[in-house]
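re: ur question from earlier - yeah i can do the single chain one, its not a big deal. heres the input i used so u can compare w yours
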Amino acid sequence: MSSAALADLVDFGALNAMDSLLVVRHGHIVVEAHYAPFRPGLKHVVNSVTKAVVGTLAGVALQEGALGPLDQSVVDLFPERKIANLDANKKAMTLDTLLDSTSGLDWREPLSNAAPESMLQMARSRDWVGFVLDRPMAQAPGLAFDYDSGTWHLLSAILAKKTGTSAMDYAQRKLFTPLGITDVMWRHDPQGITIGGYGLFMLPRDMAKIGYLHLHAGEWAGQQLLPVNWVDRIYHATVDMRMGTTPSFRYANGWWTIPDKHAYMAVGFLRQLIIVLPDVDMVAVVTGRKHYPFVPLIDRLTGAAKSDSALLADADAGARLAARIRDAATEKPSETSPASPLANTISGKSYRFGPNVFGLKSLRLDLVSPVATYEAFFDRSRVGRPDLRVGGPLGLDGYFRVDENATEQPRATKGRWLTDTRFQIVSRSILEGLVTSSTLTFQGDQVDVEVEDNHGARGRFQGESKD
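and the output i got, formated as tokens:
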């Protein structure tokens, strides 16, 4: 592969808010870049790449004889439930239609910047499986693609029924352990069912193993973990995703396919990607924080593969590639500004907030100590959990500060004064790629807060100090 082209690829990642980039060709890691403050050894949320992993588990269970035929009625697999809106269309919903996202359920989760209304409603419900099963039908199964995290949660529940264990435990025994994957986190619903549509955290190298398994038609270290025709179903996907783009996209088993590019992808929100490119014997993994077009990335990957055998060494290009990888791992400071006279006044005060879309209950800042800090509490009573405390150091010099004690959910946070009365906090959940910008405007004992994040959420609300 061309080192010069790969150096450009690393730069492409920096321009498009990647957290990590990994390229494997002919079974060897060719490029591995981590973009600060993300760093090696950290898991990253993979969002809807989870669907492709659940689809892979379904293939494993099918090969073992645990899953049974794919034309089984989904309704018949839940005889213990009284299902609402039960009609002929719902009775015709099968495992096949779940795997192709053609269930026909009425579900609103567009592949756009619009809010995933049905997914959010499911997440707020006490019984996720019941919420999905009770949805009315919008059309007959098998007619058209409709992106739906709910039906993937049904698949997870069905895997649990069929295997006698959770999808997480089944994956540990039948998929992760054979692939040498040992460090994962996978969230579950209120009933303890592993979330089927999202919620999985993985190391980028472990994501690459999932791709490598599909690159080699389901074989790993001489063991056939997946049926060959299961991977072939992805490689020859026929379900039109109706993206309205050129080239077009197809779907099967939780994987996206671009036939014109011979590219097969597990895709998660904000560009969590496993890309399989059989024509050039390549797997690429990306984690990140924003959307960008797929095709330019794929073209850069395939364009960097210049030969099936080794190229002549290019010392200058190799040095440039190494430099770009080092540069990606080095945080660049943002703009700074002098402290406001208000810093002394507001430091140590606790500001309390009424109900708001972000669930923020209270906020306390210390902007005058040698190490600036913040502490916030979020209301989680809606999901039956105690308040969530988020806090730690706060960089005022243009660099993020990370609370190294927060091993499960480390956050990188920095702030600066925009004016004498307005202070901005930028917080990054390093494992989730969630970036939140909050602008606080202080007036007397009151604070006005404007919040927006890269998931599309926005809100404005007020708080007051009683100190």
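Residues 145 and 189 are 25 Å apart (CA to CA). not sure if urs matches, ping me
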